[in-house]
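Chapter summary example.
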Amino acid sequence: MRGGDGERHDPAQDLTFLRRHSFAVQARPYLWKLRNLSRETANLAVVDDGAVIIVNRVESREIMR
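The structure predicted for these 65 residues follows.
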């Protein structure tokens, strides 16, 4: 990926940033609640330069998806 200045952008740096910040951890109880209410997998994602990056996920308990 290319950054705004034309240099190559490393998505791994974004993931490192996300792991060091607690909003993904703080969102976890809400993802559990959403998963339980919807009975579907709940995802927390961010959009970076047009790409969707999944930050946190709580899988559905249902066998069939």
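To summarize the output: DSSP finds two helices and two strands in the chain.
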